[in-house]
Structure formats: structure tokens, C-alpha cells
């Protein structure tokens, strides 16, 4: 078989080489010379385009294992479906690491944070899976403390403010330097506590609403876009991490029994949140299962 091929290809190669040699001579017709040059240019271009595709080791290995891939794809279906508990993760484009669900990259900390809510400049840290409860507890009890100071110092604030109004009267009041500083400090204290109570109270209420819905600040914007996008298609978006208002608070605060409302919520506690931040299955004490993501 090989001898027959050599007999056929030998004369063809010889004729082709003769044409190439004649192409470089001036006596060769211009048409034939242009044809040979174009053939050479086309051959160079073809090799340049296909060299990396057919010369790489990955392509050769994939081509060699193509029968194995076909065999696996067509035979594995007969063995049934295997259930795995592996978490499906994506890759972060900035730090090039696996990024689980509800994980986002913080540009300030330059790292990925599990269940990231936001980056708090006052704490100089990101609020995520392991410190979200501490952040909300800080906001809540700080608001209660400011409200307590505002209401508790209301009478002293009125007296100090009335004394400040008498400073410009004639004759001026006979207050000592210590009394003047006390009046100004009481007024400043009341306005500071009241303003912090309003601002921090609004932030606490906002986060309480998000916790009741089972979402973070970042997920709120993502879910809002998804609701709008799916509403145009006649579909309804369901948050897969929403277990109901009460169960969402149980998961967030780590409350398993009634006693935990006292030991883990009202009293200081260092218990870890439920889960590892990689997978987000419903806890065993959740009474309602999460809804599907899409519902027609």
C-alpha cells in the first residue's frame, strides 16, 4: 500500500518542485510566476493560522481522549444520577479564588468576604457572615443607649438651654466658667445623642428589614434587578434564602431554643453563626422550607 502511494506522490512532488524552480526564473511566464508566489503566500498564512491549533499538546491530548469522553458521556447515564453535597462556586475575577454563594469581593479590604453585607468605615472592617450579628447588636444597643440618654437628660437640657439664652441679656447673668461649660456640654450631649439615635436608628431599622427578608444590602440590589427583569417575562422572583420572618431571625441570631433568646440575644454571647458560609442549606430548626427561585 505504501509503495503505491509513493509511486503516485513522487511524480506529483517532482512536478511541483519544477514549477517552483521555474517561478523564480525570468523566462517563466508572469502568470505562472504570480501563481506560484500566491501559492506560497497562502501556504504561509495557512500554517500561521493553524500552527498553534494543531501543534499544541492540549489539542493532541484532547483528540486522543475524544473516544474516552464519548464513552463516558454515553455510558454514564445508565448508572443513574448521583447526589453530591459539593457547593457550586464561581471564581472571583479580582483575587482569582473560588467564590461561594453570597460571597463578594471588597475593594477596600482587597479580599472576598463570606456573605458580605457592606464595608463599614466606622468599624474599619467588612460586615459579613461571622460578624453580621455583632454589627447589628452594636447598632441596636447603641441606638437604645442614645435614646435613653436623650430622654434621661431632657430636663437638664431644657435648663441648660434656657441658661444659654440668658447669656446675652443685660445685665448678664453671673455664671462661673464651670457653670457655663456645664450648660454647653449638656446641650451638646443632648443634640449629639439625639442625632445619633435618629441616624443609627434608621440604619438599624433598615438592617432589620433586610434580615426579615433574608438578604443582605448587596443582595437587596441584586434581587431588585432580578425582580424587575423577571417581571418583564411574566415570572416572580423568590429569594432562596428567605425562610420566613421569624425563622430568618432565628438563623441570624443563632437561636435554637427559647432559652437562647436570653443567653444569646439579650446577654453577650460569642457563639458562631449557623453554617460555614460556603453552603446555605436550611437549618434543622427552620419550620418553613424556602421557596423556589422562579415561580410562574
From TrEMBL:
It comes from the Eukaryota. InterPro entries: Palmitoyltrfase_DHHC (IPR001594), PFA4/ZDH16/20/ERF2-like (IPR039859). It is an enzyme of class 2 (transferase). Its EC number is 2.3.1.225. It is found in: Membrane. GO terms for molecular function: protein-cysteine S-palmitoyltransferase activity. Its main location: membrane. It holds the Pfam family DHHC. GO terms for cellular component: membrane. Residues 90-221 form the Palmitoyltransferase DHHC domain. It catalyses: L-cysteinyl-[protein] + hexadecanoyl-CoA = S-hexadecanoyl-L-cysteinyl-[protein] + CoA. The chain crosses the membrane at residues 134-151, 186-209. It is a multi-pass membrane protein. Keywords: Acyltransferase, Membrane, Transferase, Transmembrane, Transmembrane helix. The keyword rRNA-binding does not apply. Belongs to the DHHC palmitoyltransferase family. The DHHC domain is required for palmitoyltransferase activity. This is Palmitoyltransferase. The gene is ZDHHC16.
